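Reply to dn_fold:

You asked what the input looked like. This is it:
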Amino acid sequence: MLDDTIAAISTPIGAAGIGIVRVSGRNAIPVVEKIFSSKKKKMTDAPSHSMLYGHIVDPEGKVVDEVLVSVMRAPHSFTAEDVVEINCHGGVVAVRKTLETVLKAGARPAEPGEFSKRAFLNGRIDLAQAESIMDLISAKTERSLKVAVSQLEGALSAAIKAIRTEILGLLAHIEAGIDFPEHDLEDISRIQIEQKTKLILDRVKKLIDSAGTGKVFREGLKTVIIGKPNVGKSSLLNALLKEKRAIVTDIPGTTRDAIEEIVSLRGIPLKLVDTAGIRETDDIVEKIGVEKTMEMFGEADLVLFMIDASTGLTADDREIFPLLKGKNRLLIINKTDIKKDIDLSEAENHIEPENVIEMSLFQEKGLDRLEERIETMVYAGLASGQEELLVTNIRHKNALEEAGLSIEEVLKALAANLPTDCLAIDLKTAWDKLGEITGETVEDDLVTQIFTRFCIGK
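and this is what came back:
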């Protein structure tokens, strides 16, 4: 399969200044040269990382498009193969016709993620780096981009490889004790093994602890604003978006359906959802909106529960409090410009004091405090601004957790004074599990499954 020359459109379909058709494989240059016409230089003579001006011509001799062709020779390309990128005019027809002409010249259509898969199989990048490519493409904020770039550059891979090296050293130490018992190294080895194992486990756990924050930067934090009607939910949505996205009136029940928007809050991607006010109603449409609110509430990563300071806690508010159990939540007391003193004794049983935010959206007060608190919750003890080493992929987290369990078994075996050869089994399992992250010990079926999630052309 790696012997094939593959081609695909690598830019979004639609009107644009340029469109790019990427071709990769040992025959990439000869294939494109069949359909490329240039008066100045042949592609076979072009040095690596150079561009040629000319035209793509179909088999009948008709000009398809005026193009610039980039030539990148192996191994100095993304796939580590010969790569040709045809820069044609953007637009559905021009790009499609260019690709069709390339396929007629001898290339085959690339499968989803096949360029990245070849980069992995050819040793250009490891599996963790390959997976970060999709994070890079889908990044919604500058911080999300920073996390993805860090992983593409190999920050996570380097951390994983360093831990695997430590485990390998321990395995060698154990095997030396087993193979040369006459040197009486057993007692010293057990002490050293325990100390090093604890250090390794600590490094693994730190990576696992970063996964919650990493997930937010990869997928966004689904944040649902709930509360009774007319407490300011839509006003909060508009304030965080810095635009009038939702209709705001004094009439309760104005918001009938959930409104979803992506907002960058201090670089953190929030999937912000404004919901219909929760109350008993006979209005069929509003009732459906309330049911939708409860559905969104169940899926939320963070709940912003708003109450009205001017009315104090009401029966509708009290019904919501028990629903917050087990949720990441903030209590927002709005309209403090009307009334500041409100009895929160009931709320104290449901909301921690640090998660209570006083706010006046009318006076634009309290937003900074809300943003600060959300940022603190997202980082959960990690240093803000230190996104270089975050676990963002659930596959990576699962592998780390399995490795962590195996390392804990080593410590249990040491405490039970089991023979040192028993330790080697669990250490080898941990080494293998960590290798799945970078692709060094991964099964072929899993590799195929991972790359099928990629877009065609990447």
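The chain has 15 helices and 13 strands.
Hope that clears it up.
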